[in-house]
What we know:
This protein is mainly α. The protein has helices at residues 2-12, 21-32, 34-48, 55-61, 70-82, 98-127, 133-152, 168-192, 213-226, 242-273, 293-331. Helix 8 (168-192) packs antiparallel against helix 9 (213-226).
Amino acid sequence: QRGLLRTVLEIVCSPFYAVTFFHTFVGDYLTSVVKVSQDLCWSVCFFATKEFLEKDDVSATSSNPRVFDPRVRGSLSAAMALGVNGSPPPVVNCQNNVYYVNIVVPLICALPLWWRFLQSLRRIYDTGTWWPNLPNAFKYALAQVVALFGLFHPFYAGDSDGSGHLQAFQVTWVVLFALSSLYTWVWDVTMDWGLGHPEHKFLSDRQMFSRTWVYYVAIVADLFLRFAWTLSLVPPQSSRMLPLYLQPFTMVAELFRRTFWSFFRLENEHLRNTQGFRRVDFIPLHYDHGVGDDLDDDDDKDDEPLAGRVFVAKILLIALVVLALSIAAIVIER
């Protein structure tokens, strides 16, 4: 437990700590528990603001059958509306709390993706290679921008022209959301699981599960669950209670998807660790370099500080661009 808490703390402090496989594994899980974290924060807000004492909840929570009498319920509602001094108390709940709606919820949605984005940049800095860390960073950056865009600009927020047609920002959000989901699914299959090779029937050359149909089922299930967000596009006018029914389903579906994703992710990592020199510590021999290479090495060392600063500047520029796009997704007007 201490190791897990320390890992989470290091993830929060990204990119100031070296990134290991366990950091990325836990970080990916944090991106899948966003709805759970939102519900936990909403529960704290629900009881902290005493929203459970509002009039709409009295008849539903009271064990006194007389409360269901309309006359008694009306008296209670009137008393609660007047308050102690005879004046209506200020209505404060989680739905109109500016701090919860505009700060807490966006941070819960964006921070796990931002941490994974910074981890990918840290991997670029540590390894000195752009592949596959830069495409991985782009994956989380795109998901973060899409999440913030949809959060601050709800899909069914209304039409400015009153025509009932989709606006440009709505179409853009749907297209970006679809591209992000497709991108992450392809990454899951090809990079995280090591599958998708046509020469091996779209699987891998090495597998630990004896039944190959398991991999095909996982690929198809991951695709459908990656696009489970499309259920949120159902117009709320079709059913008032539909969002309440869909939210638990999508929450459990994402946790289920992340669980079986972890099985194949660990399998791929294990198979990769047992290939080549990753099974042992590889130490280059001194005679791998020629006699005259020392002079060239001295010249290269003179260029290392400048090259290192340029490399870091490129990484910082990428982070600033993504941060600017995230801010633009929040403040952009329809």
